[in-house]
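Hey, sorry to bother you again with one of my protein questions. A protein chain has come my way and I'm curious about its shape. I'm sending you its amino acid sequence along with the backbone structure tokens. I owe you a coffee for this, so here goes:
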Amino acid sequence: MVQTIAANTATLGDLKQALGLQLSPDPGFFGEWQQATPPLGEAEQQLLDRVKANFMALRSDPPMLENSVKMVVLSPLLDLAGFYRQPFRIETETSIDLDLEDDGTVIRGRLDVLVLKQQFWLLVIESQRSDFAVARAIPQALAYMLSNPNLAKPTFGLITNGNEFLFLQATRQPVAQYGNSRLFSLLNPDNELYPVLQLLKQWGSQALDAESLS
């Protein structure tokens, strides 16, 4: 009999036991988030400053619910990254099943936002209410990422509660492993929406370059 686990209750222990998932010890496994990125334009910086100001103003009456986080913070980022235009495609509330090999268990859930380019998952995004610790959503996001049917390439992920942003990379071949970026936070003095957008734009650009070479 198949046992079903809700994705939002899955743990790293579940993924480790069933898939052998490990945090990669290789600093170069997910080195993309540390690469140099092109600078943002003045108009982009001004818009991101406004996004940060809007979020900080709304934090005075916490917590911001998940849909508010999507509307106030996530939607402008996806727009500026160019993910609302072809060849990218956005899916929301997409159902996923992650079969845990021979364990007879399925992790099931709905991921918040999926950015696709053709048949490839470019980015899995999991948003949370503003008082939710981003680190708590790592197992859930990884479960979604590891359900990617295209196992030949790594999948990027982003977890955000509006205030904090954490990028992930996961793969199941040749072994199941993942890596994470540093934690970007709007509580820091500089506007850390800048590097978040720069990374999103960089991965979108790389996806377009790969398409032109194929």
In short: The mean pLDDT is 88. The longest strand covers residues 105-117. The two ends are 43 Å apart (CA to CA). The longest helix spans residues 193-213.
